[in-house]
Amino acid sequence: MELSNPSDQGFRHHVLQPAVRSAARLAITNLAWRMRRSGSSDYPMGHATWSFLQFHDPVEIDGRPCPPETLVVYRPGSAMRFGSTAGDWCHTWFHAGGPAVGGLLAGARLPCDRPLPLGDGQAMERCVLDLHAELSVHADPDAELLEAVLTQLVRRLARCVVPARTRPIPVAFVECRAFIEAHYHQRLTLAGLGRRVGLSPTHFASRFRRLFGVSPVALAMRLRLTEAAQLLLDANLAVGTVATRVGIDDPCRFSKLFRTHHGVGPQAWRSAQFGAASVRSRRDS
Asked: Above pLDDT 70, what percent of the chain?
């Protein structure tokens, strides 16, 4: 997704009275999105707050050549040296103080004070745009929302720069799962699903289970029975109609499967839901 702001030329925003306009746990002091600079900057004493910087062009950071979309998070007081003598360069950044910042970084184990290559170059930009929108539009910014934006950024950055912590799922299997979720009410076979990822039925089922913790057949059935429970809330639908809609044509088999999954049969489940709704209605009236 292409990120943009109304000017499409970058911006810088200073937050007035940060201790008042944001939470005591988190104070965003200033930020910038895709600002262009030239030359090099040297801050031997660093900043009083945490500094998050993403460089969109090749630069040198603390004497090291770094490729585009490199991130560095500086601790308060850490020396900061970055820039390029080869030409203009572009970067996105913000400064943040308060105990929430150090706690989030420590919890995510995100390395600080050294350059880190980013796999997802838009995570930082999206965060800055979201922070800017909240801080510039609202006279009383939502403190919890600001912290939630920063939390999401830190977790996403940790995933990008420390990929070993996550187990990436191959795109073919992600698409296959999406196909099951969209067509679970239809007749699906392991052979047909396996062909979508180029594997035999046996190998496909084994790999799918390792990746998602559930077999493709069990996933499809779980989706059917979850949808069935929702459809049973519609008093105009007969139990047999619900069974057909989720792709189970045999009412007896449907009742048995529903009981196994939900603990009671479909009619008993519906009666219990309608009874609970009636009790709530009388209590609220």
From this structure: 85
| Distance in angstroms (rounded) separating the CA atoms of residues 73 and 205 | 42
Q: Are 98 and 104 within 8 A, CB to CB?
A: no
**H or E stretch including 49?**
none
Contact 90, 137 (CB under 8 A): no
Mean residue pLDDT across the chain: 86
The pLDDT, as a whole number, for residue 8 is: 47
Could you tell me the maximum CA-CA distance found in the chain, to the nearest angstrom? Answer: 76
Nearest-angstrom CA–CA distance, 75 and 45: 11
Its pTM stands at 0.64
Element (H, E) at 83: strand 80-97
Closest alpha carbon to 156 in 71, 228, 239:
71
Alpha helices in the chain (DSSP H): 18-21, 99-108, 122-137, 143-161, 171-183, 190-197, 201-212, 216-231, 239-245, 251-262, 266-284
Mapping DSSP to helix (H, G, I), strand (E, B) and coil, where does residue 275 land? helix
For residue 70, what are its two tokens?
A: 């490199």
Q: Average pLDDT of 188-214?
A: 94
